[in-house]
Amino acid sequence: MIRAPRAVPAWLAHPFRWQRLPVPWAAVARGALCAGPLLGAGIATGHPAPGVLTGLGSMLAGVNDRPGTRRTGIVHIGLPALASALGMLIGASLQAVGAGWWVVPALFAVGFVSGAGSVAGPVRSNAGMQMLATTVLGAGMPLPGAPWAKALYVLAGCLWLLLLRLVVRSPRPAGGALSGERAAVATVFDALSGALAAAGGPGAEAARRRLTAALDRADEALRLRRLTGRLLRRTATPQELLLAERFAAATALCEASVALLWEARPLPARVAESPRRFADALRTGQPPGRLSAPETSTPARGAFDQALLDAAVAFARREPTTTQGAAEPAPVPAVREALRALGGRSRPGRGLFGPAGRDYGLRVAFCIAASAAVALLLRADHWYWLPATATFLVKPDLGPLFSRTVNRFAGTLAGVLVFAGAGELLTGSWWPALVAGAGGALLPFAVRHFALQTVAITLMVLSFVYAGGARQAATERIVDTSIACVIVLVVGHLPRLADPRRRVGQRVTSALRATERFLRHVLEAEPGADTTERRALRRAAYRALGEARAAAETAAAELLAARDRNPDWLTVVSAAERIVDAATACAVRLDHGAHRPSLDEAERLCRALAAMADALEDPRRRRDTPVPDRDLRPVPDCATLTDVAAELEHIRGYAGTG
After folding, report:
1. Is the separation of the CB atoms in 120 and 361 below 8 Å?
2. Exposure string (b/e) for 92-121, b if CB count within 10 Å is 16 or more?
3. What is the pLDDT of residues 381-395, one digit of tens each?
4. Model confidence over 469-488: pLDDT tens digits?
5. Distance, C-alpha 254 to centroid of its chain
6. Is CB count within 10 Å lower at the N or C end of the chain?
7. How far apart are CA 352 and CA 358, in angstroms?
């Protein structure tokens, strides 16, 4: 009898996952020009300590050197750079006063702030992690210099890479200024073309998620450009306004396309090709050319062709129709908005002392404090590697804990062996700078896999340590990494700190509430009302669902996922995504004269979705406020809302809210 092959558990398969990404050659060039040359300059001038610190700063900045516009690069690199300098100032001050064992409670406090800040968004999460790492290194690395000088050296290294980010870039596409923002909007049209080509096939949902991610990146790029102008009280140029109008046309076209995707019918190739012509027009500055012929076979197709025509009109214009380019009379509101944009969007429950923030913070704090205590017991010097290793492992928003631990150990072992081999083959005092330069060039490519990223970081850090005077540090790194991995696995899987309900449920609940707000607006809006608010609510719902999906996928790949006590988060998120798709299709149909449901039908669907969010937020409400069966019955004469009711039934079944 042939047995069916057993599926590999997600926690065991995740360490072998590899991201397929294009090689960022400009970032590779920047990495090669950062840590290695800075360390080499310090060695050549006889002052290795400044070279080590500036190289360390450039390495940490290189971790955040991801594709994007210049302004997004400034945000994603600049805020963690300030946090890194602050961490070095704190750590070096602890070393200067001879804190001894007092470093353990100090690292506990910094670890709590670092972990709790993870709930605020990816930028502030990276900033918190790097602040904690430099605090540990500043407190442990025996480098000469005043604390303020060390902090400035680290900041200088970060700013050096940021300067290279502004200078060493990929070739500008044709079409004039605004190349970064223009490329981001062009990517939206490319992703839209891919989604339309996948309509009716097995890859339709994945293509729609890629489209959502492209919209998020373009929206962030244009928003930062707009905020920069407001902060500087600079009037928006006609090119900026024209690009904003074309992005608005792209957003409207995406909304109509979601309705086509909901119909799940394969589309002619010429339909999928039309958005790609807009992408080429943005990159080259040339007209988009001939588009697909209009057709009105369904309301969704009619809406798509109308949006396609509106986009063609927007691309035909050479002057913007809006004059909203005046500068802000007072920059204070813009400053507040910019500060919120730097670290992520604020949502209920995302505060430092909220439930999720407390759990994140305590998990990181306990791991770092335990690692530092064990390191101080084992050795008085070079104790910093153990808690530094734990810093890059324990953050719960960076991936499954078991997967990161396995890859961290494998990457550290490989990095130590490569560094030891380089030490045997190379001679002189300059070779650590060469190894650091190679690690810096590898770092942008290494984001494909955490083990490869660990190899690059290990090569660079061992080069810094060697140049700082610790000649026999390589073998100690393997032992310290092993101990740190064990501590992180034990502390990170404590029941209270590893409960996915508190880490994932909060994001899923926020996503359901954003979905409910969008659905309510669609069903209760007056006919012919302005669609600006509707599109903003739809973008907010998709963005919240993207965050919830990322958290749910991480939780599903954890070693101890506690699935017997928690809902099937991924199924809940998938159902909510389909609700937003169906609500979008409903909005398009209503715009074209489809049957409008009664207020009672609209209210019962929204009430059911809100009740499910309440039950997920507080499991005790399951018994108090079950979702009545009558709220989930199909809606007469409305296929899209019947789909909404069906997905609500899915959520109730998999979340246990019935």
Report:
1. no
2. bbbbeeebeeebbebbbebbbbbbbbbbbb
3. 778 888 988 888 876
4. 776 666 777 888 888 888 88
5. 22
6. N
7. 7
